[in-house]
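Methods — Computational structure assignment.
A single polypeptide chain was analysed. Its primary sequence is given first, followed by the predicted tertiary structure written as C-alpha coordinates.
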Amino acid sequence: MELAADKMRVGVQGFSPKDWVGVFYPPGFSARQFLPFYAQVFDTVEVNATFYAIPSASTVKSWAVRTPPGFTFACKMPQEITHDRRLLDAEERLSIFLDQMRLLEDKLGPIVIQFPRSFTRRYEENLRGFLPLLPKDIPFAIEFRSQSWHEEEVFELLRQFDVAWCINDWQDLPPVIETTADFAYLRLVGFHQQFKYLGQVQRDRSEDLESWARTVRDLARRVERVYVYVNNHYEGYAPATVQRLRDLLDIPTIDPHTLWPQQPDLLTDKAE
Protein backbone atom coordinates (compact mmCIF):
# COMPACT_ATOMS: atom_id res chain seq x y z
CA MET A 1 0.00 0.00 0.00
CA GLU A 2 1.32 3.42 -0.98
CA LEU A 3 1.77 5.70 2.01
CA ALA A 4 1.07 9.42 1.74
CA ALA A 5 4.17 11.43 2.61
CA ASP A 6 2.07 13.66 4.86
CA LYS A 7 1.45 10.70 7.18
CA MET A 8 5.10 10.93 8.22
CA ARG A 9 6.72 14.07 9.60
CA VAL A 10 10.50 13.85 9.95
CA GLY A 11 12.58 16.69 11.36
CA VAL A 12 15.35 17.70 13.74
CA GLN A 13 15.39 18.12 17.50
CA GLY A 14 16.17 21.85 17.57
CA PHE A 15 17.32 24.18 14.81
CA SER A 16 19.99 26.45 16.29
CA PRO A 17 23.44 24.78 16.57
CA LYS A 18 26.10 27.32 15.57
CA ASP A 19 28.06 24.52 13.88
CA TRP A 20 25.38 24.43 11.18
CA VAL A 21 26.33 27.90 9.93
CA GLY A 22 28.26 27.51 6.70
CA VAL A 23 27.15 23.86 6.44
CA PHE A 24 23.35 23.89 6.59
CA TYR A 25 22.71 27.60 7.03
CA PRO A 26 24.42 30.06 4.69
CA PRO A 27 27.69 31.59 5.94
CA GLY A 28 27.14 34.63 8.13
CA PHE A 29 23.57 33.74 9.12
CA SER A 30 22.40 35.03 12.51
CA ALA A 31 20.25 33.09 14.98
CA ARG A 32 17.22 35.18 13.99
CA GLN A 33 17.49 33.81 10.44
CA PHE A 34 17.71 30.14 11.41
CA LEU A 35 14.05 29.18 11.78
CA PRO A 36 12.70 30.68 8.51
CA PHE A 37 15.51 28.97 6.59
CA TYR A 38 15.07 25.65 8.40
CA ALA A 39 11.34 25.74 7.62
CA GLN A 40 12.10 25.93 3.89
CA VAL A 41 13.96 22.61 4.10
CA PHE A 42 11.97 20.63 6.67
CA ASP A 43 8.27 20.76 7.57
CA THR A 44 8.58 20.06 11.29
CA VAL A 45 10.87 20.65 14.27
CA GLU A 46 10.98 19.55 17.89
CA VAL A 47 11.50 22.64 20.05
CA ASN A 48 13.90 22.11 22.93
CA ALA A 49 13.73 25.67 24.30
CA THR A 50 10.35 25.05 25.91
CA PHE A 51 11.99 22.43 28.14
CA TYR A 52 14.01 25.12 29.90
CA ALA A 53 11.34 27.80 30.28
CA ILE A 54 7.82 28.70 29.22
CA PRO A 55 8.29 31.04 26.24
CA SER A 56 6.65 34.44 26.03
CA ALA A 57 3.60 35.01 23.86
CA SER A 58 5.64 37.18 21.51
CA THR A 59 8.21 34.43 21.04
CA VAL A 60 5.60 31.79 20.23
CA LYS A 61 3.80 34.11 17.82
CA SER A 62 7.09 34.84 16.07
CA TRP A 63 7.63 31.11 15.52
CA ALA A 64 4.26 30.90 13.83
CA VAL A 65 4.78 34.02 11.71
CA ARG A 66 8.24 32.99 10.50
CA THR A 67 7.21 29.55 9.24
CA PRO A 68 5.07 28.61 6.22
CA PRO A 69 1.57 27.11 6.27
CA GLY A 70 1.62 23.42 7.11
CA PHE A 71 4.71 23.63 9.29
CA THR A 72 4.45 21.72 12.60
CA PHE A 73 6.08 22.38 15.96
CA ALA A 74 6.46 19.60 18.51
CA CYS A 75 7.36 21.14 21.87
CA LYS A 76 8.83 19.71 25.04
CA MET A 77 6.97 20.25 28.29
CA PRO A 78 8.96 22.45 30.71
CA GLN A 79 11.30 20.62 33.07
CA GLU A 80 9.77 22.61 35.90
CA ILE A 81 6.75 20.32 35.55
CA THR A 82 8.42 17.02 34.66
CA HIS A 83 11.71 17.14 36.55
CA ASP A 84 11.37 19.67 39.38
CA ARG A 85 7.77 19.09 40.44
CA ARG A 86 7.61 15.47 39.27
CA LEU A 87 4.08 16.29 38.03
CA LEU A 88 2.84 17.35 41.48
CA ASP A 89 1.04 20.69 42.01
CA ALA A 90 1.57 21.36 38.31
CA GLU A 91 -1.92 22.26 37.11
CA GLU A 92 -1.41 26.04 37.08
CA ARG A 93 1.98 25.92 35.32
CA LEU A 94 0.63 23.36 32.86
CA SER A 95 -2.29 25.63 32.01
CA ILE A 96 -0.01 28.64 31.46
CA PHE A 97 2.33 26.62 29.25
CA LEU A 98 -0.45 25.17 27.11
CA ASP A 99 -2.11 28.57 26.68
CA GLN A 100 1.16 29.84 25.23
CA MET A 101 1.52 26.82 22.95
CA ARG A 102 -2.00 27.28 21.60
CA LEU A 103 -0.79 30.55 20.08
CA LEU A 104 0.80 28.37 17.39
CA GLU A 105 -2.75 27.48 16.34
CA ASP A 106 -2.77 24.85 13.56
CA LYS A 107 1.04 24.66 13.61
CA LEU A 108 1.04 23.07 17.06
CA GLY A 109 1.89 19.38 16.98
CA PRO A 110 2.48 17.02 19.90
CA ILE A 111 3.69 18.10 23.32
CA VAL A 112 6.46 15.81 24.56
CA ILE A 113 6.43 14.95 28.25
CA GLN A 114 10.02 13.86 28.80
CA PHE A 115 11.13 12.37 32.11
CA PRO A 116 14.62 11.83 33.53
CA ARG A 117 15.95 8.34 34.07
CA SER A 118 15.33 8.79 37.81
CA PHE A 119 11.57 9.03 37.15
CA THR A 120 10.82 5.35 37.73
CA ARG A 121 7.55 3.57 38.37
CA ARG A 122 7.68 4.56 42.01
CA TYR A 123 6.25 7.83 40.68
CA GLU A 124 3.33 6.09 38.99
CA GLU A 125 0.75 7.70 41.27
CA ASN A 126 2.10 11.11 40.24
CA LEU A 127 1.52 10.16 36.62
CA ARG A 128 -1.96 8.80 37.28
CA GLY A 129 -2.92 12.07 38.92
CA PHE A 130 -1.43 14.14 36.10
CA LEU A 131 -2.85 12.43 33.00
CA PRO A 132 -6.46 13.58 33.64
CA LEU A 133 -5.20 17.19 33.53
CA LEU A 134 -4.19 16.88 29.87
CA PRO A 135 -6.70 18.55 27.51
CA LYS A 136 -8.07 16.64 24.54
CA ASP A 137 -7.42 19.38 21.96
CA ILE A 138 -3.63 18.88 22.06
CA PRO A 139 -1.78 15.61 21.32
CA PHE A 140 0.69 14.43 23.96
CA ALA A 141 3.54 11.93 23.92
CA ILE A 142 5.43 10.61 26.94
CA GLU A 143 9.11 9.66 26.91
CA PHE A 144 10.21 7.46 29.79
CA ARG A 145 13.93 6.90 30.27
CA SER A 146 13.61 4.17 32.87
CA GLN A 147 13.03 0.59 31.76
CA SER A 148 10.72 0.13 34.75
CA TRP A 149 7.90 1.62 32.63
CA HIS A 150 8.23 -1.02 29.90
CA GLU A 151 5.11 -2.88 30.99
CA GLU A 152 1.75 -3.64 29.35
CA GLU A 153 -0.05 -2.04 32.30
CA VAL A 154 1.66 1.26 31.47
CA PHE A 155 0.75 1.01 27.78
CA GLU A 156 -2.88 0.46 28.73
CA LEU A 157 -2.80 3.47 31.05
CA LEU A 158 -1.57 5.69 28.21
CA ARG A 159 -4.23 4.28 25.87
CA GLN A 160 -6.92 5.30 28.35
CA PHE A 161 -5.87 8.93 27.90
CA ASP A 162 -4.87 8.71 24.20
CA VAL A 163 -1.29 9.67 25.05
CA ALA A 164 1.41 8.35 22.72
CA TRP A 165 4.21 6.14 23.99
CA CYS A 166 7.43 7.80 22.81
CA ILE A 167 9.60 5.28 20.99
CA ASN A 168 13.23 6.22 21.49
CA ASP A 169 16.66 5.13 20.30
CA TRP A 170 18.57 6.45 23.29
CA GLN A 171 21.88 5.25 24.70
CA ASP A 172 21.54 1.73 26.12
CA LEU A 173 17.78 1.75 26.67
CA PRO A 174 16.14 -0.88 24.44
CA PRO A 175 13.53 0.69 22.13
CA VAL A 176 9.98 -0.50 22.65
CA ILE A 177 7.62 -0.24 19.68
CA GLU A 178 4.13 0.43 21.02
CA THR A 179 1.17 2.48 19.80
CA THR A 180 -1.03 3.96 22.51
CA ALA A 181 -2.66 6.86 20.63
CA ASP A 182 -3.83 7.73 17.13
CA PHE A 183 -0.30 8.93 16.30
CA ALA A 184 3.20 7.59 16.92
CA TYR A 185 6.22 9.54 18.15
CA LEU A 186 9.82 8.46 17.55
CA ARG A 187 12.98 10.15 18.85
CA LEU A 188 16.40 9.14 17.51
CA VAL A 189 18.68 10.53 20.19
CA GLY A 190 21.81 8.39 20.35
CA PHE A 191 24.38 9.14 23.04
CA HIS A 192 24.26 12.60 24.57
CA GLN A 193 27.35 14.75 24.10
CA GLN A 194 29.29 12.12 22.17
CA PHE A 195 30.24 14.66 19.48
CA LYS A 196 31.79 18.08 20.11
CA TYR A 197 31.37 19.31 16.54
CA LEU A 198 27.85 19.09 15.11
CA GLY A 199 28.41 19.99 11.47
CA GLN A 200 29.14 16.62 9.87
CA VAL A 201 28.19 12.96 10.15
CA GLN A 202 30.78 11.24 12.35
CA ARG A 203 29.13 7.89 12.98
CA ASP A 204 27.46 6.09 10.10
CA ARG A 205 24.23 4.47 11.28
CA SER A 206 22.82 3.59 7.86
CA GLU A 207 21.73 0.10 8.91
CA ASP A 208 19.87 1.52 11.90
CA LEU A 209 18.18 4.12 9.70
CA GLU A 210 17.05 1.46 7.23
CA SER A 211 15.57 -0.51 10.12
CA TRP A 212 13.83 2.56 11.54
CA ALA A 213 12.45 3.43 8.10
CA ARG A 214 10.77 0.02 7.98
CA THR A 215 9.38 0.62 11.47
CA VAL A 216 8.07 4.06 10.54
CA ARG A 217 6.31 2.65 7.47
CA ASP A 218 4.72 -0.05 9.60
CA LEU A 219 3.60 2.49 12.19
CA ALA A 220 2.16 4.74 9.48
CA ARG A 221 -0.16 1.92 8.45
CA ARG A 222 -1.45 1.63 12.01
CA VAL A 223 -1.89 5.26 13.09
CA GLU A 224 -2.95 8.54 11.53
CA ARG A 225 0.51 10.13 11.60
CA VAL A 226 4.07 9.35 12.65
CA TYR A 227 6.38 12.05 13.99
CA VAL A 228 10.14 11.42 13.91
CA TYR A 229 12.80 13.74 15.32
CA VAL A 230 16.56 13.22 15.10
CA ASN A 231 19.18 14.52 17.52
CA ASN A 232 22.59 15.78 16.39
CA HIS A 233 24.23 13.17 18.60
CA TYR A 234 22.64 10.31 16.68
CA GLU A 235 25.23 10.56 13.89
CA GLY A 236 26.86 13.94 14.47
CA TYR A 237 24.83 16.14 12.11
CA ALA A 238 21.06 15.75 12.27
CA PRO A 239 20.07 17.50 9.00
CA ALA A 240 21.99 14.90 6.98
CA THR A 241 20.45 12.07 8.99
CA VAL A 242 16.97 13.50 8.47
CA GLN A 243 17.54 13.87 4.73
CA ARG A 244 18.62 10.24 4.44
CA LEU A 245 15.69 9.00 6.50
CA ARG A 246 13.27 11.07 4.42
CA ASP A 247 14.80 9.58 1.27
CA LEU A 248 14.28 6.07 2.67
CA LEU A 249 10.64 6.98 3.33
CA ASP A 250 10.15 8.53 -0.13
CA ILE A 251 9.44 11.93 1.41
CA PRO A 252 10.52 14.82 -0.84
CA THR A 253 13.74 16.50 0.26
CA ILE A 254 15.38 19.83 -0.48
CA ASP A 255 19.13 20.44 -0.62
CA PRO A 256 19.64 23.43 1.71
CA HIS A 257 22.52 24.67 -0.42
CA THR A 258 20.11 25.40 -3.27
CA LEU A 259 18.53 28.02 -0.98
CA TRP A 260 21.76 29.82 -0.19
CA PRO A 261 22.09 33.35 -1.60
CA GLN A 262 23.89 33.39 -4.92
CA GLN A 263 27.51 34.50 -4.62
CA PRO A 264 28.67 37.00 -7.26
CA ASP A 265 30.94 35.57 -9.92
CA LEU A 266 34.04 37.71 -9.49
CA LEU A 267 35.55 36.65 -12.82
CA THR A 268 32.38 37.63 -14.68
CA ASP A 269 32.31 40.97 -12.88
CA LYS A 270 35.88 41.70 -13.98
CA ALA A 271 35.16 40.72 -17.58
CA GLU A 272 32.26 43.13 -17.71
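Note: The chain has eleven helices and eight strands.
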